[in-house]
């Protein structure tokens, strides 16, 4: 059985304030993701067909940065490969097994990428 919480310090850092000069940003956690330049990022190109009705996809993992940049990178890859795809949970999903083509495109953009799996 879990330990019963007894005091305010056990509530996990909740701050209750009715003061007009309260600064909320002071208590918010900082973003853990750093903005890394393309040359500092280590991306992985995976091949998968699990959970997709047997259809093959290429998954790019390891991107670190804001979701807007991830979406823009995914859009650029989809456009250059002429296929569909999406960005979810910090991953870029591209339809089809285009790992070699995607790896060449990302290397031209300055990213470090390696092929993972079959």
UniProtKB/TrEMBL annotation:
<dbReference type="InterPro" id="IPR001950">
    <property type="entry name" value="SUI1"/>
</dbReference>
<keyword id="KW-0648">Protein biosynthesis</keyword>
<dbReference type="GO" id="GO:0003729">
    <property type="term" value="F:mRNA binding"/>
</dbReference>
<comment type="similarity">
    <text>Belongs to the SUI1 family.</text>
</comment>
<keyword id="KW-0396">Initiation factor</keyword>
<dbReference type="InterPro" id="IPR036877">
    <property type="entry name" value="SUI1_dom_sf"/>
</dbReference>
<dbReference type="GO" id="GO:0002188">
    <property type="term" value="P:translation reinitiation"/>
</dbReference>
<protein>
    <submittedName>
        <fullName>Translation initiation factor SUI1-related protein</fullName>
    </submittedName>
</protein>
<dbReference type="InterPro" id="IPR005872">
    <property type="entry name" value="SUI1_arc_bac"/>
</dbReference>
<dbReference type="GO" id="GO:0001731">
    <property type="term" value="P:formation of translation preinitiation complex"/>
</dbReference>
<dbReference type="GO" id="GO:0006417">
    <property type="term" value="P:regulation of translation"/>
</dbReference>
<dbReference type="Pfam" id="PF01253">
    <property type="entry name" value="SUI1"/>
</dbReference>
<dbReference type="GO" id="GO:0003743">
    <property type="term" value="F:translation initiation factor activity"/>
</dbReference>
<dbReference type="InterPro" id="IPR050318">
    <property type="entry name" value="DENR/SUI1_TIF"/>
</dbReference>
<keyword id="KW-0810">Translation regulation</keyword>
């Amino acid at each position: 059985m879990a330990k019963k919480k007894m005091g305010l310090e056990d509530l996990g850092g909740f701050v209750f304030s009715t003061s007009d000069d309260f600064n909320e940003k002071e208590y918010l956690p900082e973003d853990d993701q750093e903005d890394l330049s393309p040359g500092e990022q280590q991306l992985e190109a995976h091949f998968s067909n699990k959970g997709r009705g047997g259809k093959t996809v290429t998954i790019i993992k390891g991107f670190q940065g804001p979701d807007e940049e991830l979406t823009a990178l995914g859009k650029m890859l989809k456009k250059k490969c002429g296929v569909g795809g999406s960005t979810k949970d910090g991953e870029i999903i591209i339809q089809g097994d285009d790992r070699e083509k995607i790896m060449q495109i990302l290397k031209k953009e300055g990213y470090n990428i390696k092929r993972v799996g079959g």
